[in-house]
Each structure stands twice: as structure tokens, then as C-alpha cells.
TrEMBL record:
<dbReference type="GO" id="GO:0006310">
    <property type="term" value="P:DNA recombination"/>
</dbReference>
<dbReference type="InterPro" id="IPR002104">
    <property type="entry name" value="Integrase_catalytic"/>
</dbReference>
<dbReference type="Pfam" id="PF00589">
    <property type="entry name" value="Phage_integrase"/>
</dbReference>
<dbReference type="InterPro" id="IPR011010">
    <property type="entry name" value="DNA_brk_join_enz"/>
</dbReference>
<keyword id="KW-0233">DNA recombination</keyword>
<dbReference type="InterPro" id="IPR050090">
    <property type="entry name" value="Tyrosine_recombinase_XerCD"/>
</dbReference>
<dbReference type="GO" id="GO:0003677">
    <property type="term" value="F:DNA binding"/>
</dbReference>
<dbReference type="InterPro" id="IPR013762">
    <property type="entry name" value="Integrase-like_cat_sf"/>
</dbReference>
<keyword id="KW-0229">DNA integration</keyword>
<feature type="domain" description="Tyr recombinase">
    <location>
        <begin position="1"/>
        <end position="182"/>
    </location>
</feature>
<protein>
    <submittedName>
        <fullName>Phage integrase family protein</fullName>
    </submittedName>
</protein>
<dbReference type="GO" id="GO:0015074">
    <property type="term" value="P:DNA integration"/>
</dbReference>
Length: 186
């Protein structure tokens, strides 16, 4: 299986959100839009409960690393969350499965990672990008790196411990680093 990619231009980011909304449902577009802004692994993103949101902060323990993620929510993310909460005031999870509500006596669950993955793969084919659940996290890291050129900052945001892993993760290749050195003359 090919490694998923970061989306490297804003127009494609918006197109993916639009396609997810019309090809699947607005909830998939919300996963994409909120996921881009939080840079969490998909398992952590889908497990967000409304009780994890404290004003303008999200506080959760990452399942893979056990590290505490204390994230300041930006305006766009807060708007998405407020809309979802107003639309589904009885939901426990930010991305709660609507299928579970149709089955009586079933505890609420978030939508599945598999459903998100399949939706992203399908839209990725349409826009000719290898798109997956990690693409949101990679895209956020890529754009932060392009804006700051500060790999330590990107590592901290993604909670990585190696510069090499982070550069490879966000799709920064040696060729791109070489271009930066050639184009910036002091």
C-alpha cells in the first residue's frame, strides 16, 4: 500500500472538504476540516467527546503515546464544533455514528476509522492524491513547516521525537530542502 500524502495547496484542501460533503456526508467534511486544524491521529480525533472540550481548549490523552494533548482551538475549529453540538445536543462524541442511534439499546460510538479511510481514499482518487486518515495531520505539519521553516516547532505540534521522521512524515524531501538553500541567498 502506498504511503498517504500531505495536501500541499489550499485549493485542493477546500475541494476535498467539498467533495467529502457531497459524495459522502457533511460529517465526513467535518472530520476533514477539524482534523486539519487539530493534527491528531485519526483514532484520537474520532474519540473526541464533547466533555474533552474546555472552552477554547481540547484536552485528551493520545492513545498511541499516552501523551497529553492540550490544544488551543482556533476560530474555524470552534465554529465547526459549535455547529455540530447545536445540531446534535444529545451526542457524546464529536463525530458520533448515526448508525448506532438507529439500533436500540446500543451505546453511542464514534464513526469508524474504516468509514473515514474509505471516504478519503475515494475522494483522493478523484483529486489524484494518495489520501488517507493521516493526510490531515501531514497537511497541517507541512503548512506549518512552509510558514515557519522551523522543524522543531512542527515536531512539537505533531509530538514527534525525530527531525528526520517529521520531515519524511510531512513530505519534505531532500530536493525541496536543496531548493530552499539555492533560492535563499544572503
Amino acid at each position: 500500500m502506498a504511503e498517504v500524502q500531505a495536501v500541499k495547496d489550499s485549493d485542493t484542501i477546500h475541494l476535498i472538504g467539498h467533495l467529502l460533503s457531497i459524495r459522502f456526508n457533511p460529517q465526513m467534511a467535518d472530520v476533514w476540516n477539524i482534523g486539519l486544524n487539530l493534527a491528531l491521529r485519526i483514532s484520537d480525533l474520532l474519540s473526541i467527546r464533547f466533555e474533552d472540550i474546555h472552552g477554547s481548549r481540547l484536552i485528551i490523552r493520545e492513545s498511541k503515546t499516552g501523551k497529553l494533548a492540550n490544544i488551543q482551538l482556533n476560530t474555524k475549529t470552534l465554529e465547526h464544533i459549535s455547529r455540530i453540538q447545536a445540531q446534535y445536543p444529545s451526542h457524546i462524541y464529536l463525530f458520533q455514528s448515526h448508525r448506532c442511534q438507529q439500533i436500540k439499546h446500543t451505546a453511542p460510538k464514534p464513526i469508524s476509522r474504516r468509514a473515514v479511510s474509505m471516504a478519503f481514499q475515494q475522494v483522493g482518487k478523484e483529486v489524484n492524491i494518495i489520501l488517507g486518515t493521516h493526510s490531515m495531520r501531514k497537511t497541517r505539519g507541512y503548512f506549518l513547516y512552509q510558514a515557519t521553516k522551523d522543524i522543531a516547532r512542527v515536531m512539537k505540534m505533531l509530538r514527534h521525537s525525530s527531525e528526520g521522521v517529521t520531515l519524511r512524515y510531512i513530505g519534505i524531501t531532500q530536493d525541496e530542502l536543496d531548493k530552499d538553500f539555492v533560492s535563499l541567498e544572503l
